[in-house]
Design goal:
The protein has 251 residues and is α/β, with parallel strands linked by helices. It is built from eight helices and six strands; from the N terminus they run βααβαβαβααββαα. The radius of gyration is 19 Å and the shape is globular. The chain binds 3-methylbut-3-enyl trihydrogen diphosphate (2 copies) and magnesium ion. GO terms for molecular function: transferase activity.
Length: 251
């Protein structure tokens, strides 16, 4: 059988993929193990999708790793997730460098434990000149929190006469989001069968194609990613226009 990757059209690879990595806890439970066992095994899937994106030339990959709401989980689970983050960042730096991957983070990073913050800042700094793939981790991220921040920051500028109210437009809002340096999301994937956004990139997903996979995150592999991308490539993104207008552009 032909390798699934060979069915991907090189000229229609999504520029920015965002993934809600969900189902770690259920994966562990099915195996009779504690939830954190699922988180630990989720790291393999993270490596796989990063590698897969590299192979087909995706420019931006954003991973939802920890939401503002996840702070409300049992303390031990939060603690384990934070330690896992520190050890993964330490371990993966070499691979990021080797593969020319630039690390970026979005979210209320100040809420993260100091150890995580130090490691994160270091890896971001060390990989800042890499150019192949921008890997963004959404950490302590919530879209509503992000929007509140945008409104506060723009309001301050209005009060200080740096921006006039009439000047506020989509571009200015974009430039104040945590994602200011990233393009719009083209393709959003959520694993584990849940069909919701869970406070992820509400503004940025405005015209993203959505894909929901039943696979639990620790089982997600490159092939699952490629299958999702083939599905994406068979869709017509109309952006409000009609089919005939889109065909003309593609001619
Ligand atoms: C996703 O898996 C990882 C995080 C939210 C940190 P979950 O931990 O949500 O796993 P389920 O959804 O309970 O199975
Ligand atoms: C969303 O998953 C957050 C991450 C994947 C980091 P959750 O498991 O926290 O979302 P809900 O609670 O099912 O909506
Ligand atoms: Mg979940």
């Amino acid at each position: 059988m032909k390798d699934i990757k060979s069915y991907i059209a090189e000229n229609k690879v999504p520029n920015h993929i965002a993934i809600i990595m969900d189902g770690n806890g259920r994966w562990a439970k099915l195996k009779g193990k504690p939830r954190v066992f699922g988180h630990k095994n989720g790291v393999t899937a993270v490596r796989e999708v990063i590698e897969g994106c590299g192979e087909i030339g995706v420019n931006y990959l954003t991973l939802y790793a920890f939401s503002t709401e996840n702070w409300n989980r049992p303390a031990l689970e939060v603690k384990t997730l934070m330690s896992l983050l520190v050890s993964s960042l330490k371990k993966e730096l070499k691979t990021l460098q080797k593969n020319n991957i630039k690390l970026n983070a979005i979210g209320n990073i100040n809420l993260l434990p100091e150890k995580v913050n130090i490691e994160l800042t270091e890896v971001i700094e060390k990989t800042k000149n890499n150019t192949a793939l921008t890997l963004t981790l959404a950490l302590s991220y919530g879209s509503r929190d992000e929007i509140v921040n945008v409104i506060r920051n723009i309001s301050k500028k209005v009060v200080n006469n740096q921006i006039k109210i009439e000047e506020i437009n989509e571009n200015i809002i974009n430039n104040h989001l945590y994602t200011f340096s990233l393009p719009d999301v083209d393709f959003m994937i959520r694993t584990s069968g849940e069909k919701r956004i869970s406070n992820f990139l509400l503004w940025q997903l405005a015209y993203a194609e959505m894909y929901f996979s039943d696979t639990l995150w620790p089982d997600f592999r490159k092939e699952n990613l490629f299958e999702a991308i083939i599905d994406y490539q068979n869709r017509e993104r109309r952006f409000g226009k009609i089919s005939e207008q889109i065909e003309k552009i593609n001619e």
